Amino acid sequence: MSVDEVAWQKWHKYVTNVVDIEKKKVIWNHNGRGKETLDRFYHALGPDHCERIEAVASDGAKGYLLLKIHQHCGLLNPRLST
Question: Above 70 in pLDDT, residue 44?
Fold first, then answer.
């Protein structure tokens, strides 16, 4: 999957998009950016779907992106644990 935070309306508002790279389809988006917004995605995803994540791509939010995936999915998906 890929996570991208996109600015709009002259850089004052953001939307976070999560894309299934294989299907080339936006699978989730929400107004806002940052840790709390990504928490919403993982809560909506749930533990069963968390196990299906094989890799995550991002364009700069690596620090909290990795933290969040480990918090929500790391114990459920050993491929994502370090």
Answer: yes
